[in-house]
Amino acid sequence: MTSPDRVPIVGGNWKMNTDLPEAQSLARALTLALAEAGGAEVVLCPPFTNLLAVHEIIADTPLQLGGQDVFWEERGAFTGEISAAMLWSVGVQWVICGHSERRHLMGESDEIVNRKARRALDSGLKVILAIGETEAERKADRTEAVLDAQLSASLIGLEGSALDNVVIAYEPVWAIGTGLTATPDQAQAAHSFIRSWMADRRGEACSRSLRVQYGGSVTATNAGVLMSMPDIDGALVGGASLKADDFAAIVRAAGPSV
Ligand code: PGA
After folding, report:
1. Which residue's CA is the nearest one to ligand 1's atom 3?
2. What number is the average pLDDT over the span 223-233?
3. Given the CA of residue 240, which atom of ligand 1 is nearest to it?
4. In this predicted model, what pLDDT tens digit does every residue of 142-192 receive, in sequence order?
5. Which residue is closest in CA terms to ligand 1's atom 1?
6. Is the pTM of this model over 0.85?
7. Where are the beta strands (DSSP E) in 55-210?
8. Which residue segments constitute the domains of the chain, with CATH numbers given?
9. What spacing in Å lies between the alpha carbon of 239 and ligand 1's midpoint?
10. What's the 77 CA to ligand 1 centre distance in angstroms?
11. Which of 35, 59, 156, 171 has its CA 20 to 30 A from that of 137?
């Protein structure tokens, strides 16, 4: 279980799955299912076109709203992109930067991820920064080297209090959407590496307060054992976040019981 210094945090990444009526009904179901969840912070990340409608549904609840991506410029001729101020203006508090689908399908580099994270933080948004190794990198015993490189490059210029508003999501690429969840020991080892990286590079206090979510085929069934590991402070959930009861069960597994 996460240390008492850290409030667990669970994100629901709806990806490109909900049209407006589907998003509204999922958000309504979640407000009911999570009414008594207590304990963990919860961030719903619907597609951009659903943000305002979901904001209106969850506005009077403890549920928070996140974007799935953000552009690094403030405004201008960037067709199709969404700025941090635009997100903020529809009630968004969080944004995911560097999700593996953006890194691998859209070719986002660590440099781009860093620019996005810095802009989001400068604009008052909090950041869920996603990192993780591919299957080939794990098989080649390069997991720690990959995490080191991704953290070093994605966190350039982010020090001190800026990191209070950053959560790291450790999401092994081979576990995302595949049903191949990392074992609790594999996840714990990676989380512990990330926490020591932070202690070495940004100091003990930052490392102690840093929240590290696990993501990759988290389900209502496996969430409890994953969340029982000492350095796992919550989850970033894709598929199971589309089912209100499953997501609520994951949130309950993450949070200290109330
Ligand atoms: P998954 O996705 O839970 O469907 O594996 C996790 C994620 O991409 O954040």
Report:
1. 238
2. 97
3. 3
4. 999 999 999 999 999 998 899 999 999 999 999 999 999 999 999 999 999
5. 238
6. yes
7. 64-67, 94-97, 126-131, 166-170
8. 9-253 (3.20.20.70)
9. 6
10. 32
11. 156
| Smallest CA separation from ligand 1 atom 7, residue | 238
Ligand 1: distance of its center to the CA of 182 in Å? 12
Q: Is the CB of 172 under 6 A from ligand 1?
A: no
> How large is the average pLDDT for residues 28-53?
93
